[in-house]
């Protein structure tokens, strides 16, 4: 039995090592392409400061997650939290986990709204509960069934 597990682990490690090598090769190619573009820009304008060109931020499409994926991520973040989190805190953690630009305020606002929608749905299912937090944010936590209450005030504020 251990042989099957070991063989599976060895096979998976080989696949992962191959993916890493392919990713390194793709990254090397992108760096070379970037250097070529910089050289071309400098041919047209030798004084141009190419280092001032900001990298274009990745913007996820409006339907960036599969059905239920947003709720699963939010619940996972809440399960790992030591204390209740605001909708914005959950959205920030989500951006970090998804390797998205957490300094992009527009993206953060969008994800905060999506987190709020996902968590309100989970509150209806009895999985999470919320209390009034700072400002218009709500404090969310996993409902462990301590008191079984459902806080209607969560519907009054915009997350």
Strand content: 5-15%
Shape: flat
Q: Looking across the biggest beta sheet, what order are the strands in?
A: 1-3-2
Q: How far apart lie the N and C ends?
A: 51 Å
Q: What order do the SSEs take from the amino end to the carboxyl end, as H and E?
A: HHEHHEE
Nearest-integer average pLDDT = 84
Q: Unreliable stretches, pLDDT < 50, 5 or more residues?
A: 155-159
Q: Count every beta strand, where a strand is a DSSP E run of 2 or more residues.
A: 3
Radius of gyration using CA atoms only:
22 Å
**Biggest sheet layout:** 3 strands, antiparallel
**Number of helices in the DSSP assignment:** 4
**Considering DSSP H and I runs of 4 or more, what fraction of the residues is helical?**
40-55%
Derived structural class: mainly alpha
Describe this structure in words.
There is one protein chain. The chain is mainly α. It has 4 helices and 3 strands. It has helices spanning 2-44, 69-80, 87-97, 105-124; strands at residues 85-86, 128-132, 138-142. A 3-stranded antiparallel beta sheet has the order 1-3-2. Helix 2 crosses helix 3 and helix 2 packs across helix 4.
